[in-house]
Amino acid sequence: MGKKLSVFALVLMLAASLLSACGNAGNGASGGDNSSEGGSASGGSAAEGEIYIPIISKGFQHQFWQAVKSGAEQAGQELGVRITFEGPETESQVDKQIEMMQAALDKKPSAIGFAALDSQASIPLLKKAQENNIPVIAFDSGVESDIPVTTASTDNMAASALAADKMAELIGGEGKIAMVVHDQTSVTGVSRRDGFKKQIEEKYPNIQIVDIQYGGGDHLKSTDLAKAMMQAHPDLKGIFGANEGSAVGVINAVTEMKKEGRIVVIGFDSGKAQIDAIKNGTMAGAITQNPVGIGYETVKAAVAAIKGEKLEPQIDTGFYWYDKNNIDSEEIKAVIYE
Amino acid sequence: MNLQLKSGALQQVLALASLVVLLVTFSLSSGNFFQFSNLIGILLSTAVIGVLALGSTFEIITGGIDLSVGTVMTLSAVMSGVFITFWGLPVPIGILGGILTGALCGLLSGTAVAEMKIPPFIATLAMMMIAKGLALIISGAKPIYFTEAESFANISQGSVLGSLIPGFDIPNAVLIFFIAAILGFLILSKTIIGRYNVALGSNEEATRLSGVNVGYWKIVIYTLTGAFTGLAGVMMASRLNSANPALGAGYELEAIAAVVLGGTSLSGGKGTIMGTVIGALIMSVLTNGLRILSVPQEWQTVVVGFVIILAVYADMLRRRKA
C-alpha cells in the first residue's frame, strides 16, 4: 500500500509541475491579449439596466474566430454593452453549440449573436428566443429561418468567384487546376467550392478543374493530398485552397515537391503561414474575409435591434484579395490576422 | 511457441504480399504512381502516423489500447513550441522536451492503468481530454510557429541522406521513422521490456505468478509508447513548421488501424514491429494510390474501411486453423 501511495504522490507532483509549466506558458502566449475578460462561458445573468449580448460562434480555436471575437469586443466597448464570446471545441459539435445557445437564453440576454453549425437543429431555440423577444443576429453563415433579424456574413460564392478570376488571370486563361476544400458538408465549404467551380466553368472554357479533394482543414492531410494531386497531374498549373488549413496544406505540398513559383497557389482566409508564403512567393495571393468586421457588425446590429431600429436582412461584411503588392497596405493590414 | 512464431512470420508475409499487390495494382493503373518522388511522398506521409503506430504497438500487445496518442502528439508538439519559441531554448532541448512530454503523459496513463486499476480505454480517454485541454491552454488556442528557429524544420524536412549521397533526397522524417522502427524492433525482440510485454499480453496472471512486477512493467511500456508519441509530435511540428493545438484528433484511430493491419492482436500477446511498419505503409499506399486515381474522397474512406475488415478477418481465419 505504501508503495502505491508513493507512486500516486509522484504522479500528483508530476502533474502539478506540468500544470505550473502550463501556467507560465499560458501567460507567455497571451501576453498581448488581455481583452478576453468577457470570453468566459459563465457570464451570469444580465445585471439591471445593462445590455448583455452573448455571441455563440462555431468555435474558438481558429485564428478566424479569434479575429471575430476581437471585432465583437471592440464594438462592445465602443457601444458600452457587455458581450461574451464562446463556441464549441470543434465545428462538428452541433449538440454542444445547442447547449451553449440554451444556456445563453437562460441568462435572459438583450440580444444574441449566433453562427449556426446546423441551421435546422437550432430552429426550436430560435423560436424560443423569438417568444421571449430576444432579437437574434446570425453571423458568418446564415440560418434557414426568418427569425434572425439580420445576417452578417461574407458572400462566400462571390468571394471564391473572385479567387477563380485571379486564378484564371495568373495561369493565362488555360490549363489544368485543382481544388483542396475543407469539407463537403458545411455552408462555407460548399459555397466556396461551388462559387469557384461555377465561375471557372462559365467564364473560362479553356481551364479544366481536374480534381477536388477534401482535407477537413487538417494541415497534414491537406499537404499529403495536394502532393498526390501534383503527382497525378504533373502539368497542373494551379491549386485553390478553400480555407486556412487547406491553403497551408497546399503551400507545404508545393514546398515539399519543390515546385515553388511553378504552381499558382491561391488561398482563402489568413494566418501567419499564408502571409509568409505570399511574401516569399510560394502563394500568389488569397481572399480574406473581414472577420473583425463580422464580429463588429454583429454586435452593432444587435444593439440596433435592441433599440428597435430597422435592419436590412443581409449585412455583407466584405472580402478582399490580397497579394504581394497590397499586403502591407493599411486596408489589408486591418483584415488579415496572424 | 514454435507454432506461434511461424504464424507470426506468415502474418508478416501476408501483410507484405498485400502491400506488394497494392503497389503493383496502382503502378499499372497510373503511370504517375511508381515514381521516385511519389514513393518518397508516400514514405513521408507514413512517417508521423507510422511512429505513432510503432508506439501504440507496445501498448496494444499488453492488451491495452491508447485513445490519447493523437492529442498527446499535439501536446508534445505544442510543448516543443513552448521550449523553442516562447522560451528561446536550443532546438535539441525543444525536441527532448517534446519527447519527454509524451513520455510523461504515458507515465500518467500507465500509472492510472497499473496502479489505480483503471481500464486502459478509460484511462487513455481521460488522457486524451487532458492533453487536448492542456494543448489549448498552453498555446493560448493559437498555432505556435517555429520560424525563429530555422534548424527545427530540418528535423523532418531536411535530408541528411541527400547531403551525403547527391540525388538521394530522402527526407529526415523517413529516416527517423526507420530508425524508430529498428529501435522498436530491438526493444520488442531483444530486451526484457519486450519479453515481459508479450508475456503480459498473453497471460497477465501467469506473468504475475512467475514473479514479474506486472504493474511496474506496464508503466514502463506506457511510458515507452508515450515517448514514441512525443517523437511523432516533434516530427509533425517540424514538417508543418508549426504546432497547431487544433490538429491531431483522430490520428489515434489511424495509428490503431495501422497496428491492426500489421497483424497485432487487439486482445494482446501477439504483434510485431515489422507488421506495424507494413500496416502503416499499406494505409498510406492505399490513400495515395486512390488519390492519384482521383477516386472521390467519400469512396476512399469506404475502401479503407473495407480493407481493415478484410485484413483482420483473414488474420482470424488463419489463426482459427492454427
From TrEMBL, chain A:
Keyword Signal: yes
Protein name: BMP family ABC transporter substrate-binding protein
Subcellular location(s) of the protein: Cell envelope
PANTHER family from the UniProt entry: D-ALLOSE-BINDING PERIPLASMIC PROTEIN-RELATED (PTHR46847:SF1)
Matching Pfam families: Peripla_BP_4
Domain Periplasmic binding protein: 55-310
Family affiliation: Belongs to the bacterial solute-binding protein 2 family.
Database matches in Gene3D superfamilies: 3.40.50.2300
Automatic annotation (TrEMBL), chain B:
CDD domains: TM_PBP1_transp_AraH_like
GO molecular function, one term: transmembrane transporter activity
Keyword Membrane: yes
InterPro entries (UniProt xref): ABC_transp_permease
Compartments reported by the entry: Cell membrane
Transmembrane segments: 39-60, 67-87, 93-114, 121-141, 173-193, 214-237, 249-266, 273-293, 299-317
Topology in membrane: Multi-pass membrane protein
One term under GO cellular component: plasma membrane
Keywords associated with the record: Cell membrane, Membrane, Transmembrane, Transmembrane helix
Family annotation (PANTHER family): ABC TRANSPORTER PERMEASE PROTEIN YPHD-RELATED-RELATED (PTHR32196), RIBOSE IMPORT PERMEASE PROTEIN RBSC (PTHR32196:SF72)
Record protein name field: Ribose ABC transporter permease
Organism: Paenibacillus ihbetae
